[in-house]
Amino acid sequence: MAEIKRTDDRPVIDYMARDYESLLASMRGLIPQKLPEWKDFADEADFGNVLLQLFAHLGDIISYYQDRVANESFLGTARTRRSVIEHLRLIGYELGTAAPAAASLSLTVPGTVTATVTVARGDAFATKSRRDKPSVRFEYTREAPLVIDFSKLAADPASGRKVFGPAQGGIPVEEGRLIRDELLGTSDNSPNQRFPLAHPGLLLRPAGPAAQAGRDVVVESQLASVPSVWTLRESLAFSQAGQRDYRVEIDDADRATVVFGDGTFGAIPPQAAAIRATYRVGGGSAGNVPAGAVTTIVGAPQLALLGATVSNPAPATGGAEREDIAHAVQHAPAVFRSLRRAVTAADYEALALSFKGVGKVRAEATGWNQVTLHVAPQGGGKVSDVLEADLKGFFEDKRMLSQLIEVSDVDYVPIRVTAELAVESFYVREDVVAQVQQAAARLLDFERVDFNQTVYLSKFYEETQDVPGVVFVNITEFRRGDRTGAPVEPHGTLVLGSNEVPVVPLEPDYRLGLKVIVLEQGRR
Fold first, then answer.
1. pLDDT in tens, 12-47
2. What is the pTM of this model?
3. Residue 395 lies in a domain
4. Are residues 404 and 454 part of one domain?
């Protein structure tokens, strides 16, 4: 019989419990009972053994497919992304696409510039490319152009240049690339028409107001030079026969398909109408670039002609990979229980965590009609203006009518740890030091920490002493980096507040969470 085992803390049906060897052994064990006249079955050259081996081989294949079907038939044991997608669609939950990082750019021009320039949707900026890392593209994504009048800005006395920076609002940008007016095909007037997008990696925010969804993908049908704009919906189940609605399906390979209605649930595009789409692709943690990384103007010639330079004063935040199946299986039931309505704090937290770009969130009632969401973007950092606006828009049709929503940053608490370390004489010191730093840093990894957490000194001893080559570790500093006090917390615990998240300090000496002093090369 197949066995239920646990892999990566998830139940999995193990087909190896009925493999070739076990099936062959079981059949041979039945020979004396079923065929007592077969005396020489131990002879490998016997034709009967050949048949048994063929049966065992066929049984191995059949049992493999049976167990794969059994695995993929239940959400708890499904292993493939495709199966999880299909299961969760039954409760109206779509796996999230990758989320783009957002940043605010500072624009600098010569002090003599007095022109008025316009930054339009699709104007692009990028980081510099390197041999081991391609450039990351950022674009201005808002529908309304950004108008900058340099005649109203005073030149900096020190540099003699004019700066349009955070004090003036900056240029809000998001990572990704805009694909304009892609021809998807021509309507044949049949129901449920499907048109795949040519570029994978569609950026699609969780469903919110139509105005917000239109930022991600815009679909038009054009007949006799007359365009008609269609509306993105989560589902066509509530669309009327004449409504120009469509939905987007994304498969396990991140390929997106535009799906139209059947004439009863959603309209059918008219015969011979050209179907076009404008959408953005990109996203991922690669967009979380550090401050000062975005320095190239790649798609805004009106700025380049002025001799302008750009930079991002603060790191880009909010970039996240597509939702993995483990996260979806864990959070989808909570979203389903909320009925996509935000009433309790748990509802707000479950729905916010389904919004890509949100790494951690805590909902708090800060007034009789106000809820504050304390948000940490994916990978850490501050909440960008783009993420804040998108998150508020996401809740617009989910909150109660009288409810007000505010988005706030979390409080990051640096944990300072210093250790004295002795290394075996036959180990390379630098390698051991790097491994100890990595082991300590894992304890403060963003994915492993949470609000209101207790950080234990003993955990740092456990992790560092398990590193090969370490003779002993003596931790001489263990404290919060935002407070003064004893070098080592007397009780060996650091209890953080309800809005606090522990992080690695930013100082160079604490690059990986632990500063190491090598005292001597010890011997066992």
1. 655 555 788 888 888 888 888 888 888 777 777 778
2. 0.74
3. yes
4. no
